[in-house]
Amino acid sequence: MRIALPLAERLQDPQSWGQYVLGPDFWARTLQNWQSEFLAVGSMAVLSIYLRQRGSPESKPVGAAHSSTGVEG
Fold it and tell me: Which residue has the higher pLDDT, 69 or 51?
């Protein structure tokens, strides 16, 4: 049977900024976040290129004036 230690004995000293940045937990969280952001931005870029090449009505021709798109009203 394991006896629970008092809270004061379970606490650890806080890490310095340098220890946190060099630790594996920081890099695992950072790379996981960058992976999801890269996937999201990359898929939006590929989709927008595909729609422009396809002649989507949502896209104006390359080089067209900004005033030539959209309907005001």
Answer: 51
